[in-house]
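Most newcomers find our protein records easier to grasp once they have seen one. Each record describes a single protein and holds just a pair of labelled lines. A learned vocabulary of local backbone shapes supplies the integers on the structure line. Nothing more is needed to start thinking about how sequence determines fold. The record below serves as our worked example for the rest of this section.
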Amino acid sequence: MDEVVKMVVEKTGLSEEVARQAVEVVVDFLKTKLPEPWGSQVEKLLAGDAPDLGDMLQKGLGGLFG
């Protein structure tokens, strides 16, 4: 998440504290609006970890096929 905060600071001129708060608001919003398991992977992605796409596809598409 630090990389995104840094980018917000650079592009907007906001302080790091305000930029971090803004990023956290957006991340929380995405986590609640994205369907599972996508929403739970947002923070993992921002931390630089690769989300488990196989698991996400299996869980996300599993409901479509029973």
Notes: The longest helix spans residues 16-33.
